[in-house]
Design a protein that fits this description.
Blueprint: E1 2-10, E2 23-29, E3 32-36, H1 42-52, E4 61-63, H2 69-72, H3 75-81, E5 86-90, H4 96-104, E6 107-111, E7 115-118, E8 121-123, E9 127-128, E10 132-133, E11 136-140, E12 143-148, H5 155-166, E13 170-176, H6 184-196, E14 201-205, H7 210-219, E15 232-236
Parallel strand pairs: 3-4, 4-5, 5-6, 12-13, 13-14
Antiparallel strand pairs: 1-2, 1-15, 2-3, 7-8, 8-11, 9-10, 11-12
Helix pairs in contact: 1-3, 6-7
Bound molecules: fe (ii) ion.
Residues 23, 68, 70-71, 150, 176, 206-207 line the site of fe (ii) ion.
């Protein structure tokens, strides 16, 4: 089985694609296509999906990391393709976005503890940043591939939760690490914690900051996965 992961929206630009501030990741886990976050606006999501030949009308669900606009703003595009999309959402937030999703006709499933939503796909118990934020963990025979949104509670804390609750070691981490304006020490500490948990591949994108990328590239080149909008990562199960 193969796992295909595409950065559908990311603020690191690439020619021919929109790169507003935000994150959206398209995943095909074996035969299951889904979306992790939606970026900040429906137009960018639609434009990039069309350019990359990704048909979001076929996705089985959307999982939202946290309520901020740069992860939820693209949702109207999903509603233009599906009448009642299934949306996993962290429990304990402000309800503003959640109420809107309900009004639009979305089928919301709130996550309050780590849950295996499909065989091999877990959404982790939300941790408080603020805001509350969940991560998504996919099982492979090398360990977990962890998708994070902005990591407001800490990428290391989200990974710890996933490792503890699934009983699997970490293999890869992809997403925003919220280290844009953090001191270098904190950036290094967070990345080293992920490596200590077993991470063999790390793709710091979105709000991870340049130093997280530089540090990994320089000190751990075999672990660093460079990513920008349009980047594809393929993993074997
Ligand atoms: Fe974000």
């Amino acid at each position: 089985m193969k796992i295909y992961i595409t950065l559908l929206v990311d603020n690191h630009p690439a020619p021919g694609l929109k790169s507003p501030w935000g994150l959206s990741v398209f995943v095909k886990y074996g035969s299951i296509p889904f979306l992790w976050d939606t970026g900040p606006d429906p137009a960018a999501l639609k434009y990039n999906a069309n350019k990359l030949g990704i048909d979001l009308s076929k996705i089985e669900f959307v999982a939202i990391s946290h309520e901020h606009f740069d992860h939820t703003g693209g949702l109207p595009y999903i509603f233009s393709l599906q009448k009642h999309p299934l949306i996993y959402y962290p429990h304990g937030g402000s309800k503003i976005v959640e109420n809107r999703i309900a009004q639009w006709g979305g089928k919301i499933i709130e996550i309050s503890r780590t849950t295996e939503i499909k065989k091999g796909i877990f959404i982790t118990a939300p941790l408080y940043g603020p805001p509350v934020e969940e991560a998504l963990a996919m099982v492979t025979n090398k360990g977990l591939i962890l998708l994070v949104g902005c990591s407001h509670p800490g990428a290391d804390k989200l990974a710890e939760r996933a490792v503890k609750d699934t009983g699997k070691k970490l293999f890869a981490v992809i997403g925003g690490f919220h280290l844009l304006s953090s001191p270098r020490q904190k950036v290094e500490r967070t990345i080293l914690a992920l490596i200590k948990m077993g991470a063999k591949k790390i793709a710091p994108v979105h709000c991870s900051g340049d130093y997280a990328r530089e540090f990994l590239k320089k000190k751990y080149p075999s672990i660093y996965l460079p990513g920008r909008v349009g980047t594809n990562f393929t993993f074997e199960q």
